[in-house]
Amino acid sequence: MRILVIEDDLTLAAYVRKGLDELGYAVDLAADGKQGLFLATSESYDAIIVDRMLPGLDGLTVVKTLRATNTLVPVLFLSALGEVGDRVQGLESGGDDYLTKPFAFSELKARLDALIRRSTTSDAAVTELSVEDLKMDLLGRIVSRRGELINLQPREFRLLEYLMRHAGQVVTRTMLLEHVWDYHFDPQTNVIDVHISRLRSKIDKAFDKALLETVRGAGYRLG
Amino acid sequence: MNLFRTTTFQLTILYALVLALSSIAVAAFLYWSTIGYLNRQTDSTIDVEITGLREQYRLVGLQGLSRVIGERIRNADDPQAVYLFADKSLRPLAGNIPAWPDLVNRADGWYSFSHTIDDKQVRARARVLALPEGLFLLVGRNISDLDKLLRLVGTALGWGVGLVIALSLVGGIFMSNRVLKRIENINQTTRRIITGDMTQRVLTRGTGDEFDRLADILNRMLDQIEHLMGGIQHVGDNIAHDLRTPLTRLRHSLEEALISGDADQTRQGLQVAIDNADQLLATFSALLRIARIESGGYVMRKEPVSLNRLVSDAIELYEVLAEERRIQVTSDLHESSDIDGDRDLIFQLITNLIDNALKYTPRGGEVHVATTTSDGSTLLTISDSGCGIAENEREKVTQRFYRVDTSRNESSSGLGLSLVQAIVNCHDAELSLADNSPGLSVSVEFAAT
User: From A101, which residue of chain B is nearest by alpha-carbon distance?
Assistant: First the structure.
């Protein structure tokens, strides 16, 4: 896996590179928009992480130019501008996801994993998801574990579906709020934890092996 | 300050000029009307005289007339009277002037001339009467005294005008000095405030004049500024206090992780440190968010939003939390038209209010959410059965880091209502807190679009 990081803050770039190196990614760094665009068009990457504010050519322009040349590589924006309007601007320019600075590396990793997974698997034909002995029938909207039916509320179903689609990956609370509840906001209390523990009591409680685990300081992981 | 460049002085000069011109006009009017009056007086005296003499002539003839004139001249009843009899070639026959004046001809009418009495040029005014015998009678009056009087009046008026100009100049300088002194008083106070002494206030005289009112307004503005500065300082102190606690804990946990030899304990310490750091980051981003919304830096995406939909979603999200605390959440949604707003911000507002209501409601309590539309404006009300907020504290709760609970509840950042207030402000809505007895009722009114 090759990742291009376009970031003018060298400390942050080094931090991201070190983290990604440890995860086994090959990382290229570009310190400004021009160099980044050059690398992005001349080399082949599995994902690009780009800062929105760059000297010379800004991140939005880089991504717009990339998309204009039909480059489909997943792009993750990094930015200190984190409001919904800014996010939407980033996504409209052709970005696939948006992460606000300061961020935890675990959040970056989780989002990057999701992006790469999304670009490598096509979920169009999927009608059934399974994680170990947990099965989800997307058409019949039936969930069962070891053959035993599990009764879920609609929102719990969507929550579990998202977790199962990202099985094995860490999913952060913000990702869940954005994709399961479809709102960008900061909850004052960790209301997501309560939803997770509810879901956990339904899918894990009666079974000896827990599938849904909490990753401290990061989020949750299924399977 | 240069006196001659001040507005007050320039105004003074202008007023002095206007005053001088108008007093000159008044003086001139007085002068000319005095002249007119005196001339008319002289003319009517002469007229009376001539009428009397003509009557004498009709009664006693030429002889009698010359006798009457001779008597009058001898008796000198009126020292200013002028009489002269002359023949048809204007040679004097009798009278109190030696010769027929050059300027006067024989036609009947009014004349002004000068003649010499005791080596002095004297001005006179006269009328000529032609008698049937071919004789001419000149009757007049010396008007030198009148001229003297007019000169006197003219001089007096001139002095008067001069005095008015001088007084208005002196008064103007005095007045502008007075005004300048009061402005200087304001300047001095302002200078002292600029150098940092916020306690300074402009002195007032208690007369309630314009300067007192100006000083009063300035003082009120200064009070307000001082109050706001106090507020900022209060927020600053609170930020310092609120961030110091998690920072201290962060330091402790890192320290513990460092000194413990056990790998598991190190790991645990680092986890706690990360949690603390996350809490700090969350507080910072909440502060930044409020600041961005308040300063207008946030890009609002206003669109028609169904408040009912957002409330239902928020209740669905928080219901699990409420159930855990045995709190019943009920709703009464009657909003009939969409409001104009930023969907995510309004959702944030609703969840913050629900979150607060749940936080301050005891187990077994109740939280009620209602929406109504009336006259186009939409009202969102979230009421709880908690401990409520004392009336005198209701205004303060939207301040950053203000907590009703002075024991500083660890689970709240103290920023929730500040964010709500910021969102309310940028939607031109209105936030009000009321007693729900027991509990608190928070309402947000969105104006008609």
Answer: B285
Locate tokens 């100049």: which residue? B169
Q: B281 and chain A: CB distance < 8 Å anywhere?
A: yes
pLDDT at position B357: 92
Where is average pLDDT lowest: B153-162, B283-292, B354-363, B394-403? B394-403
Contacts of B119 (CB under 8 A, 6+ apart): none
Interchain proximity A188–B352, CB inside 8 Å: yes
Q: Are residues A8 and A114 in the same domain?
A: yes
The whole model's pTM is what? 0.60
A194 touches chain B (CB under 8 A): yes
For an interface test with A, the pick among B267, B298, B299 (most A C-beta atoms closer than 10 Å) comes out as B299
Which residues make Cβ contacts (< 8 Å) with residue B368, sequence separation at least 6?
A: B329, B330, B331, B332, B381, B382, B383, B384
Task: Supply the CATH number for residue A147's domain.
Answer: 1.10.10.10
Average pLDDT, chain A: 87
Interface mutation target, options A191, A198, A215, A216, chain B, most CBs of B under 10 Å: A191
Both A113 and A205 in one domain: the answer is no
Q: How far apart are CA B150 and CA B391, in angstroms?
A: 85
Is the CB of A106 inside 8 Å of chain B's CB atoms?
no
The CATH number given to whatever domain includes residue A7 is: 3.40.50.2300
Instruction: Identify the pLDDT of residue B355.
Output: 92
Q: What is the pLDDT of residues B213-260, one digit of tens each?
A: 888 898 888 888 887 787 777 777 777 777 787 788 888 888 888 888
Q: How many C-beta neighbours within 10 Å does residue B405 have?
A: 11
Taking the CA atoms of residue B44, residue B46, residue B51 and residue B52 in that order, the dihedral angle to the nearest 10 degrees is: 120
Query: CA A107 to CA B285: how far, in whole Å?
Result: 16
Looking at the fold, whether A83 and A138 belong to one and the same domain comes out as no
A42-96 per-position pLDDT tens digit:
888 889 999 988 888 888 999 999 888 888 889 999 888 767 777 888 888 888 9
| CB pair distance less than 8 Å for A188 and B416 | yes
Same structural domain, A91 and A137: no
Task: Among B290, B320, B349, pick the best mutation site for testing chain A contact (most A Cβ within 10 A).
Answer: B320
Predicted complex ipTM: 0.72
Query: Domains in chain B and their CATH numbers?
Result: 3-152 (3.30.450), 210-295 (1.10.287.130), 302-446 (3.30.565.10)
State whether A72 and A133 are in the same domain. Answer: no
In the block, residue with structure tokens 């994902």: A47
From the list B278, B351, B356, the residue facing A185 with the nearest CB is B351
Q: Which of A120, A137, A172 is the last residue of a domain?
A: A120
Higher pLDDT, B142 or B233: B142
Contacts (Cβ under 8 Å, ≥6 apart) of B435: B388, B391, B441
Structure tokens at B223: 């009070």
pLDDT of residue A41: 86
Domain count, chain A: 2
**Are residues A161 and A98 located together in one domain of the fold?**
no
Contacts of A185 in chain B (CB under 8 A): 344, 347-348, 351
> What domain range includes position A212?
128-222
DSSP B338: P
Specify whether A113 is located in the same domain as A151: no
pLDDT score at B100: 81
pLDDT at B404: 60
For residue B219, give both structure tokens.
Answer: 């003082």
* Same domain membership, residue A94 and residue A23: yes
